[in-house]
């Protein structure tokens, strides 16, 4: 582990489902995946530690700077691009610094900030984002420590609170509904209209429940074929939609189409040839793909993204109680992490002070010992004596450095210690072991 | 015939026992429905099984009391109906389970037994021409049919409740407690099919009984016409379900309506 520069603050910029409408979030989502985005980011951020998270509900950038406003501006420019104009950033995005940023990250990792509080997917998404960031060498010692901490905090929250027990994500809510309609899902067929990320997620969830088969219909057939290949399903074009509806049982629609792609009067006649076998439509597109009137047809059930959120909302009251406990854990862990980070400000000074005392001892012993004729025992006793004097001398200055006022980065006091002990000449940023907890 | 007073007393106490045990079973089922604790359901099942045994004993004692199959008065018919529903439920449960079905069925059984409790229980001797072994055969078939149709009715109600929650997209109290629509629909088609077969057997045996007693297969009296209407109502349902693919809400609604017709005719005809 390298040296952690002191006086750096952790800053978090981002948008999530609470602050930003989906149309804007869509524009922010990484089109080319992490690879491309991280390469571009690296060009801007350079050696500054950074980490990028992008899911369907949030895009967040975490970086460590020494308050370089220009850098922050450029990073924000990269992150928000043309989707959010600088004057709108206040309204749509959030910016957390220091303890607030740490707290927010812990909340996200523990799934307290999710659309569906308690869902477990987010931790996996953070881990994946971290894997990409680490592979691109974007993160450094501070962010490595912070992200690993966020994993363990999430784990602690999950094991010490009931937040995950009733965890129902949007897609598992959809699976629950499908089970209440169809009973067993084994022989049921799913049709994905549009190949969006959410649709993929929902399909994965359904396949996890042993669904019979998957059919993908998409505007561009290549993408349909690609996605169908992943699920060992079949692909078809959007023109065949009505024909396919005779065969399938669950339809998940998530196209980017501006208008409705399936109307009530197109589906109603189908029910006869389906012999009234139920049809379950899930519309996770914004704007909606499916005619709301579909729900009026007998044996047809239509849920859009709002309905699913409402279904999930049902468990909220119970989980809200657990969330309070979870927040306490997170506050506690944030406090611990910040204390650790504050300690970093004095760590180099403490290390330098110790090193200076050690150097003096070693030098003086090296000068004196050869002149004395001592046996091994006496020699060791003299060495211990010297070290003991040095550490007794250092005790009070070290206590001073470890006092809260110094820990919180009162640089004037730290500088005074450094001047009094003449530490400025000895390089501060030598490769001492910063993983030593100064507390 | 055992007409001694002590036997009347035994008979009365047996019915009281049936009533208490069934109400207790139903109460346990309801508390299971509310709290979803498995040990309550286990107790509910044991109690309902106990109720079936007591109901059987009561019917047997009633047989010895009046000297013929106890299906002639309103009280006896409804008790036999409750017994048939309970027996049908257990025959059904033996094959597969439907979540919280017992709660609804036990409720129906309790309602039937309460209706029986309010009916006069005096012994009315059977008219001589009706004394025939066709009586138990016809009544047995018909009431077993009603038992299964009663199960279908409970399933239909559950279907309608669950379907309403799913359609309204505001999942509430019943959503998690009731089984899937598919399970309920299958239950309906299953009970309807068995019930209809017994209904046909009841119709046929009834007309043979009529032939033996009155010399004609069908006399167009109100009771027979009502039975014919019930038979036609269910015939239409069976037909629509198995040929036109009728299922879901409409089918469940029809099952509920059909059973209401059954109850109304039973009430009109036997009182």
From TrEMBL, chain B:
Keywords: Cytochrome c-type biogenesis, Membrane, Transmembrane, Transmembrane helix. The chain crosses the membrane at residues 12-35, 47-65, 77-94, 101-119, 139-161, 187-208, 228-244, 251-269. It holds the Pfam family Cytochrom_C_asm. It is a multi-pass membrane protein. Residues 74-266 form the Cytochrome c assembly protein domain. It is found in: Membrane. This is C-type cytochrome biogenesis protein CcsB. It comes from Desulfofustis limnaeus.
């Amino acid at each position: 582990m390298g040296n952690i520069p002191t006086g750096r603050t952790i800053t978090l910029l981002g948008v999530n489902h609470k602050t930003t409408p989906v149309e804007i979030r869509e524009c922010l989502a990484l089109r080319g995946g992490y690879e491309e985005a991280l390469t571009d980011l690296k060009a801007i951020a350079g050696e500054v530690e950074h980490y990028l998270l992008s899911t369907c509900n949030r895009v967040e950038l975490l970086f460590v700077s020494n308050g370089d406003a220009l850098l922050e501006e450029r990073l924000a420019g990269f992150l928000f691009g043309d989707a959010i104009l600088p004057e709108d950033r206040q309204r749509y995005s959030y910016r957390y610094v220091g303890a607030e940023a740490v707290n927010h990250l812990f909340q996200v990792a523990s799934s307290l900030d999710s659309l569906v509080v308690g869902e477990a997917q987010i931790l996996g998404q953070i881990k994946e984002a971290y894997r990409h960031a680490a592979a691109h060498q974007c993160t450094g010692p501070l962010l490595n420590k912070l992200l690993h901490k966020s994993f363990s905090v999430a784990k602690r929250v999950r094991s010490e609170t009931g937040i995950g027990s009733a965890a129902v994500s949007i897609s598992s809510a959809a699976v629950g509904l499908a089970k209440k309609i169809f009973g067993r899902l084994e022989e049921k067929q799913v049709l994905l209209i549009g190949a969006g990320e959410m649709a993929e997620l929902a399909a994965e969830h359904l396949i996890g429940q042993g669904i019979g088969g998957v059919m993908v219909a998409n505007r561009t057939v290549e993408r349909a074929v690609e996605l169908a290949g992943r699920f060992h399903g079949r692909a078809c074009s959007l023109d065949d939609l009505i024909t396919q509806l005779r065969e399938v049982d669950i339809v998940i629609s998530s196209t980017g189409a501006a208008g409705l792609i399936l109307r009530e009067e197109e589906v109603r006649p189908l029910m006869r040839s389906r012999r009234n076998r139920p049809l379950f439509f899930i519309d996770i597109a914004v704007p909606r793909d499916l005619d709301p009137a579909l729900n009026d047809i007998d044996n047809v059930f239509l849920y859009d993204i709002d309905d699913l959120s409402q279904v999930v909302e049902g468990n909220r009251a119970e989980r809200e109680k657990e969330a309070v406990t979870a927040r306490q854990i997170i506050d506690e862990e944030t406090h611990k992490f910040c204390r650790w980070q504050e300690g970093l400000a004095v760590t180099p000074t403490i290390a330098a002070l110790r090193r200076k005392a050690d150097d003096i001892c070693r030098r003086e012993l090296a000068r004196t010992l050869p002149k004395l004729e001592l046996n091994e025992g006496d020699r060791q006793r003299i060495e211990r004596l010297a070290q003991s004097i040095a550490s007794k001398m250092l005790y009070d200055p070290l206590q001073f450095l470890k006092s809260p006022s110094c820990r919180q980065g009162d640089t004037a006091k730290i500088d005074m210690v450094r001047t009094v002990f003449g530490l400025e000449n000895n390089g501060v940023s030598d490769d001492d072991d910063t993983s030593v907890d100064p507390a | 015939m055992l007409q001694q007073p002590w036997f009347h007393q035994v008979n009365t106490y047996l019915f009281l026992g049936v009533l208490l045990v069934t109400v207790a079973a139903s109460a346990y089922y309801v508390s299971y429905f509310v709290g979803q604790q498995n040990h309550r359901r286990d107790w509910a099942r044991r109690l309902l099984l106990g109720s079936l045994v007591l109901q059987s004993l009561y019917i047997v004692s009633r047989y010895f009391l009046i000297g013929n199959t106890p299906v002639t008065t309103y009280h006896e018919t409804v008790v036999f109906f409750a017994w048939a529903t309970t027996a049908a439920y257990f025959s059904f449960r033996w094959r597969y389970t439907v979540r919280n079905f017992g709660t609804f069925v036990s409720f129906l059984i309790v309602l039937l037994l309460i209706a029986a409790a309010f009916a006069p229980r005096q012994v009315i001797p059977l008219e001589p021409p009706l004394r025939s072994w066709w009586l138990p055969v016809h009544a047995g078939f018909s009431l077993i049919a009603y038992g299964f149709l009663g199960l279908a009715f409970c399933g239909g109600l559950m279907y309608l409740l669950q379907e309403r929650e799913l359609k309204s997209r505001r999942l509430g109290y019943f959503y998690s407690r009731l089984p899937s629509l598919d399970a309920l629909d299958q239950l309906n088609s299953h009970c309807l099919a068995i019930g209809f077969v017994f209904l046909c057997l009841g119709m046929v045996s009834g007309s043979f009984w009529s032939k033996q007693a009155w010399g004609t297969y069908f006399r167009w009296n109100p009771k027979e016409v009502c039975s014919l209407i019930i038979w036609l109502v269910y015939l239409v349902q069976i037909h629509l379900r198995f040929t036109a693919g009728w299922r879901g809400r409409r089918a469940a609604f029809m099952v509920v309506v059909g059973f209401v017709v059954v109850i109304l005719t039973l009430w009109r005809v036997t009182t």
